[in-house]
Structure formats: C-alpha cells, structure tokens
Amino acid sequence: MPLLDDIGIPLDDAELNRRSFLKLLGSGALAVAALGTAVTSVEYLSPNVLFEDETRFRIRRPEEIAVGTLIALPKQRVYVMRSQEGFIAFSTVCTHLGCMTKYEPENNRIFCPCHGSQYTIEGVVTAGPAPRPLPRFELVVDKGFLVVNTRKAVSQDTILRYSA
Amino acid sequence: MRAVTQYARSLLARLTDNKVGRSMIRHGWAETNRNRSLVVFSNFFLHIHPVKVRLRAIAFSQTYYLGGLSAVTAILLTVTGLFLMFYYRPAVPQAYHDMKDLEFAVSAGIFIRNLHRWAAHAMVALVFLHMIRVFFAGAYRPPREFNWVIGVLLFVVTLLLSYTGYLLPWDQLAYWAVTVGTNMADATPVIGPKIKFLMLGGNALSENALLRFYVLHCILLPAVLYMLVAIHIWRIRKDGGILLPPASEHDYEKRSGKGYRFEAGRAVPDLEVKE
Amino acid sequence: MSESASTFAAVKGEDSQRDPVRLLVVQGEARPPVDATTEPMVMTVPHLLLRELITLLAASLALVLISLIFNAPLEEIANPEKTPNPAKAPWYFLGLQELLHYYPPVIAGVIIPTLVIFALIIVPYFDVNLKRKSLFEANSGRTMAYWWTAMILVSLLFLLSGKHPVWPIAGCVWAVALLASFGAAPKTWGALGRWSAKKSLAYWVFYWFLLTTTALTIIGTLFRGPGWSLTLPWRDGIY
User: What is the complex's ipTM, to 2 decimals?
Assistant: First the structure.
C-alpha cells in the first residue's frame, strides 16, 4: 500500500485559490473564536453583583464632634476630622500597599505599620513610601447627620464648611 | 529469610502469571536486562526515563538530587493537600474554623497541615537550589535551553502555588500578606486595577478572593505544575541525559575497582576547531 | 567522498586551547549522545529507580520529623480592620518586601520581578560560548578600569534611584566587583585569585543575582521589625 501523503494530488489554480481562501477564512474564524473566548472568560470572571459593605453611611451629628478631633471608623475604613473650617472624611487605607493605617493620638499622626508611612491628621504624607495622600471622600449633612460615601472620591482640598 | 523471599517471589509470579496478569504486565519477572528494559518501555510512568543511564549521572555528588527532591516535595504536597481538602471549606469564616478543627478536632490533622506547610517551604528552597546547581553546571546551554525555560516557569508556578496557598488559612498573616500582594499587582500600569479585580473577584479581599485562590491552588496551578514537570523530565531524556562534565581517564580509573569495564573516551567530540 | 574528507578535515590547531574560534555549533538531530559514549552505563531499573525511591523516603522522613516537632503558624482570624505590625509575607517573599521599602510598588513589585524572570528565561539564548573567557584574561589593566567604572555607575544607580539608598544591592555590586578583581592577579592572591580568574562575566552577573536575593531575603526576614524599621535579631528577636 502506498502512503497517501507521498503520492501528492495535482491541483489546478482554481483549487489552489479555493484552498487559500478557505485557509484565510478558517484562520480568521479561529482568531475571532479565540478572541471571543478570551473576552467571555474575562467577563465571566468579573462578578457583576458584589455583596460588599454599604459604601454610604451615617457617622454622627456634626455638633457631637469637637474641633480638632479625629474619629476613626475602621470597619468602614474611614477617618472623619473636624478642623476650624469644617469637616473632612478620608480613607484609612494606606496608599502604598493597602494596609490599614492607625491613628496615634499621642503623636498626633496617622501611621502605617506595613512599611512605615506617616500622614498628618489631614491625610498628607509626611514620611515613608506612600506615594499619595489618603484620598478624601464625599461628605454631606443629611437629616442632621454627617454622611460619607466611600465610593465617591473628591479632590484633596474639599472641605465640608461647618461652623457651630 | 532466603526461603521466605523465594516463596514470596514464586507466589507473586503465580498470582501474575495468568490471563489477567499478563494483560497488565507483559514482561516476565526474571531479572534479565531485557525485562528491566521492558519495565521502562512498557510502563506509562517510567517511560519518561531512558532504559540505561550513565553511572556518573546518578551519583548524588553530581546533582545532589535537587530536582528529584523538588519532585518529591511536590508529590508530598499533593497527597497532604488532598487530605486537607477533606476538612477545608473555602468560605469566610469557616476556612479559619476548619484550620482550628484540623488542629484540635481531627486525628493527626495538625500533623498533615504541618507536613503541607513545611514541604511547601522546602519546595521553594529546593527548586531555587536546583536552579543554581543547573546554572553552575552550565546545563542551560544548547541543546537544553528550552528545558531551562521550563525550569524557570516551574519556579514561577511554585511561587504562585505558595502565594495562593498562603491565603487559605484566612488568618491575619494570610490576609495582610495577600493584601500587599494584590496591591502590588494593582500598581501595574494600565491593566493593574483590572488584574486586581479579577484576582480578588471584587474590590476588597473577601470570600470571593478566597474561593478564587482555592481553585487556583488546588486545581489550575497543580495541573500546570504536573504538566510542566512531565515535560521537564522527559526532555532530560530527549537531550541525552543530564549534562556531565567531560569525563577524563582519571575519572574512569578511580571507578575501575568497582568492576565496570570501559575504555577511555569522550562523550562529546571536541568541537574546538581553528579556521 | 574520501577525497573531500581528506581535503576538509577539521584539525585541532596547537593554539586552539588558547584562542578558540567558534565556526559552528553542531547540534545534529539532538540525539542522545549516550549512543556514542563509552562511559559505564547502568540499567534505569533498578539503579536509578531505587535511588529515586530512597530520595522519596529520605525526604519524607525528614519532613515528617520536622512536622512532628514544629507546628505551622496560625494567627488570629483575618481582621480587615487591623493590620498587624509588622505584616510579613513568608520568607521567600521577604526579599521582594524589602525592595518595597526602597522603591514604589510599580518598580519593586512589578518591573523588577518581571525583569528578573525575563533575564532568567533568556540566559541560554545569548550565552552560548563553547569556552568561556575569564573576565581579565586579555588586557587586564584596561578591563579593570572599565569594570570598576561600570560597577560604580551601577551601584550609584541603586544608591540614588530609591526612596532610600539601596545599600543591600549596592553592597553586593561592590562585593562582586572586588571578588572578580582578584582574578586579574591570580598569582598574588593564591587560591582565591585562581578561583576568581576562572570565572566569566556571566558567572559574575549570576553571583551578583544570588548574593542580592540572599542579602535582601536575610535582611527582610531577620532585620526588619515594626514599621519595617531596622532591628537586630539577637537583641529584639525575629518578627
């Protein structure tokens, strides 16, 4: 029995054209299918509904917070600070690698235990590897309560003006 | 003693010398070199090896068996890992409570967990030492270059296995080490945040991430590891065994007392030629 | 055929050892050279297989003993509200964590590891010299000047680029530069000089890589405490 691969089948031009067209069509279809598979996989792996903690929450009444104090809410991962001008709310998560910072009242600073970054009580970096200040969040007074939304970052000079 | 051994052998031979036995193992039991070759030829797992090996290649002092030891730790990790899976649920907070149960409520649970943890540490060290040994032997050079690349990939897979496994106990150590790790991925330009989101299956390190790391640690990465290991060992055979320094006559003379007969010669012809 | 063979026979010149020139690399079909060797051979079964089994048993025994004596650490349940101080990864990642002390995450956590893996992968594709030259073999005076200039520039890069001067890496650059320099005068430095004179540039780069990873890992594991501050293990213990 001869090996069929050794015989070779003579092809005319029309056949060759047809074959190269089909090759192109076939590889094109494969490429589209591969791309579709990749995109679908990434989409499948990105959850659309997340059971994460509520990002908008009440803190307390503004008049309950004295001027110059900082309140830490570790569960919600937010600090609220009252200065002379008003209130600011900012993240407790270190901008370096996501560790939880800690407020140290005795040093009047915010400290990150992972790599030693330090911040002022307004969230400005003073030492360590942190690249950015702690991001500020939207803060409003709603029905007599301070309300923070940690999904909404605001610019670093935003202050909720408030005077008693 | 000898009689017992002989009896055991004849019993084994009688048990296997029938229709069923011969359908599984097609060679005889007698210790002939032909049968020894057939053991390697006809065994699915052993055919990854050649039939014969150079005497120098299997000496401990040649390789310190670092590759073999890495493979042994991988096997131990697979077995102990399987055991741990019977008691572990990748959920919050059950994962942590299951660790405590393994420690206090399961017979030998803490032992299996210890074995898994220490074998993992040993594997990282052994794989790294293996890589150093291979580099200094110059064995990454052609024709073994692609096997070196597979080796580097195996090192990366080993580290990824360690990293994903580190989260599973869901203790403070695990949680913050992985937080730091995912935030490093987050720092990648352009695609960083998407990678982090895919790794965690959410915005923060939570139950979704635990389940993802569990699947990667128990299914995907071990599968990749075993596939690469199989190719890695098989290619050693295809590349003519491990690289040995050129043999000198002196080496042969040293071993001549052991009853091996050979003639002095070089394994690879000297290719240094002058234009 | 015999005629052409005699015309183009490859002969080994008397200076081939001193000054080899690579004409070609013969790879053939990559057939196992075991066919061509007269080395003593043994059967895989039982010689190799037995050794593999003994390795399996010995390693298992050692790990079983370790596991009976030492318990794997387990801390409190994960608490997203409180970061332990210090928060350390397992020892094999502490070299990387030490780098994070000096460089921003994108450099220490993404670029440097990627470059290291990439460098390891491409190693066999550029270093194919049949005989490796030692660093100071020819023209040792000029090579020495280039060598130290390069090494000082590289160490300056590490001293000036980070948030803090990266002493562990720069120190390793100097150590390797010094070790290699002994090879320039092997007669003066005895065994150290002779050892050093045999090494090529590829070796020195790899030594530097090894020394650096080891140094960073040791510092990260033993010498770092709360807030990633420098501690002494014999004074403050290991964190």
Answer: 0.86
